[in-house]
Amino acid sequence: MTRGKLAVTGLTKRFGAHVAVDGVDLEVDAGSFVALLGPSGCGKTTLLRCIAGLATADAGSIRIDGRDMSELPPWRRSLGMVFQSYALFPHMTVAANVGFGLKMRGEVDGGRVGRMLELVRMSDFGTRRPAQLSGGQQQRVALARALVTEPPVLLLDEPLSALDAKLRLAMRTELRELQRRLGITTLFVTHDQDEAMAMADRVAVMDQGRIVQIADPVTLYRKPASPFVAEFVGRINRLDNIIPGIASRIAMVRPELVQLSAAGAPSDGARSDHSDAAAGLAIDGEVIDLVFVGDRIEIHVRAGDLRILSTRQSSGEPPPAIGTRVRATWRRDDLLVY
Amino acid sequence: MRRWTAALLIGPAVLFLVGGFVGPLTLALGESLRGGIGPYVRIFGDSYYLEVIAATLALSGTVTLAALAVGYPYALILARAQGWAKTVLLFLLVAPLLVNVVVRSFGWMVIFGRSGLVNAALDLVGLPKLDLLNSWTAIGIALVHVLLPFMVLSIAATLEDLDPALEEAAATLGARPLRRFIHIVAPLSLHGAVTGAILVFALCMGSFVTVMMMGDNRTMVLPLLVYQQLSVAGDGVFAAALGMVLLATVLAVFWLQARAVRTLTP
Amino acid sequence: MIRRLYMTLAGAFLLAPLIVVGVVAFTSASFVSFPPPGYSLRWLTRVLADPSFMRPLANSILLGLAAACAAAILAVPAALALARRQMRHAAEIESFLLSPLSLPALILSIALLFYLSRLGLGSGFAGLFVGHTVVVLPYMLRTVLAVARGVDPALEEAAHTLGADPWRSFIHVTLPTLRPGIVAGALFAFLVSFDEVAVALLMSSVGSMTLPVAILNHVAHNYDPAIAAISLIKIVLVIAVLLALELFFGLDRLMLSRARR
């Protein structure tokens, strides 16, 4: 894919004293799918709106295939964008909505509109109005409308958030398949970390107007760049103040890497219980809750002031009962230390 | 809520309007027909009355179009304004609305009068004085002033409900500001414009105080004629018949506009 | 640039007659001219001492209050019933209750004149009261209805589950949530009645004459600055009420159908 490389450098956007986007650098390779992930108010939507030209950046540049877009109004950038509310024109038919972008370019091409509707499996609905469609159908029309002019880059602003849970999962797959088939560069804004991890080639995590880490989902999960990323992506145990020598720093471990054994029983290493605990690689506690979540079981352990979460496959050995004394252990290599 | 509770709640208002609104109108219709259809034959057989009806329709139509032309930009700016600017714009619009028609017409009399603002200005640049009062133009300007707020508020209400993402979506699809207005904003605010036009037209058809104060017997409109028949000529039956013609004209215009709305907005 | 020019012109157009009236009220001359040759308070003091303006002013205030109260008593229950939308023909009933809005008031005025004289009530305060209540009822209903539609029905249901019977949930939950709409509607109704001239012109007798009619009568016979002076007093009164509306409720929430967000 040679078309659609997006490069954002030093992008800054202020609202009064508040800095919504703070010197963001972001490169999206042609044909790849990047998710902008972050809590609400982190600046991800503002960043997307700056790229689309709907908000004017105070500093920085936006380039697509080397061409500077920063000074262009949105209608000259020819990017595809899908809005959170879909923003389908209520007074136009589905076909007119999809054909709008072509009409604005002075091209009327019924064939292209038809092919686009076919692509999103909405061929039978061309004469309907947006209000007569379900949420998922509206979503597909919005996508077709954004894609019909063959834009180099597709921008998606929380496009799945208005759908119910089941449909959202189905649309994830559908959207990702479509993106792969068309090979279109895609930037996807979401606050849902599952969604970002499941769909994107690379995930850019934003916090307070900055990108704090950009990486593929596996790296993001295993090697989070900061405690913020570690806590925002997936679940994690904080083991503050129990690891000797690093008391002033933050230590964390993922719940599936926490092993539980009966308290007092020897752990499976050569070291004794005593040395493990002294090294901060084990702690004794009591099971206070069991949560069955289908394929997994969550075991909540209270150890003094700490709460430790351990997860395991529900098809494996049965979990210890509530009230059981257990010893939680983890390996030094699995610790995330900051 | 049970059905009888609802009836109990809404009953008094309905009964009051049946007694104080429908009853009187029915009685007035009966009154106008008491001596047969004579009064109606007189109205429709006399070119003077037909001319007055035509003049009333023409005045109302012109005032409605002028209010639309002046009011749409105001509504657009009002709907997009934020914070204190919005409050100022609303206050500017609403303050005259709540000042009496008599007072406002008096203000226009002072502006257009022989020794008024316009003539003072003309005098200053050495132009001859004009007799602006007692003209359709002066009446029209005063009526646009009186009715403008109704137009603006109707349009602004629909513009306020417009999702800003719609215009943004059109922009990302390549629509420049003017085309966004033509393809998105105008069609989606048509409903408010039509509502405002109906309201202004109907109110204008019934306006007689402004015409009475600012016009003379060359500028006669139907409601003023009704009032004069009653208060000066003392002919209640004929006044009632003229009133019914006025009512029928207003209702006919409503019906036409409702049809127009149905074909314009799907 | 064009926008600024337009706003200046529109603002000037909207305010011009009001400003002119305000300035002429302070004229020192005995005739109406603009701009006035000099300034004094003579017309204002004269009007304030003139019972032929002050009695109608009192009448107008009394009538406005009475019509607003009557409209509130009729419209609040109706708005509650309509907001629930469980009634059959709710839409039709609503447009019937709002229909006096679209009828020229003069026609209503003539019709009421025949009707009340048939009932033996004649002109006078009773006629004015009935006429103005009909005229202001739709304004009241529309304002209360807008608020009632925005109230979450779960509020009353919550009150019921907490042990409040229908009457107590009305007093403690429904009425307080409707209060802004009722107060705003009543203020509106008062202002509309205060301003109404078509019904008042035909209905009022010498004793029950309202202020707009008194001004109109005066202007028909003498075109003098007293009109400007009494008009200024009226404008100040209305603007005071308007400022109170803005202060307590926010005008944009009252005037535009729905506030965004």
Structure description:
The complex is a heterotrimer of chains A (338), B (266) and C (261). Chain A is α+β, with helices and mostly antiparallel strands and 338 residues long. In chain A, 27% of the residues lie in helices and 31% in strands. In chain A, strands 6-7-8-3-9-10 form a six-stranded mixed beta sheet, with helices on both faces. In chain A, strands 13-17-14-15-16 form a five-stranded antiparallel beta sheet. Chain B is mainly α and 266 residues long. Chain B has twelve helices and no strands. Chain B has helices spanning 3-32, 38-45, 47-80, 83-97, 101-112, 117-124, 136-161, 164-172, 177-205, 209-214, 222-233, 236-264. In chain B, helix 3 (47-80) crosses helix 9 (177-205). In chain C, 76% of the residues lie in helices and 0% in strands. Chain C has helices at 2-24, 42-48, 51-84, 90-98, 105-118, 125-150, 153-161, 166-195, 198-203, 211-221, 226-249, 251-255. In chain C, helix 2 packs across helix 11 (226-249). The longest helix of chain C has 34 residues, at 51-84. Chain C is globular. Residues 257-261 of chain C have low confidence and may be disordered. Chains in contact: A-B, B-C. Chains B and C meet through helix 1, helix 3, helix 4, helix 5 and helix 7 of B and helix 1, helix 3, helix 4, helix 5 and helix 6 of C.
Provide a short characterization of the protein structure:
The complex is a heterotrimer of chains A (338), B (266) and C (261). Chain A is α+β, with helices and mostly antiparallel strands. Chain A is 27% helix and 31% strand.
Shape of chain B: globular
Rg over C-alpha atoms of chain C, rounded to the nearest angstrom? 22 Å
Secondary-structure-derived class of chain B: mainly alpha
Distance between the termini of chain B: 34 Å
Count of distinct strands of chain C: 0
CA-CA gap between termini of chain C: 30 Å
Major beta sheet summary of chain B: none
Which keywords apply here?
heterotrimer; A: 338 residues; alpha+beta; C: 261 residues; mainly alpha; globular; disordered C terminus
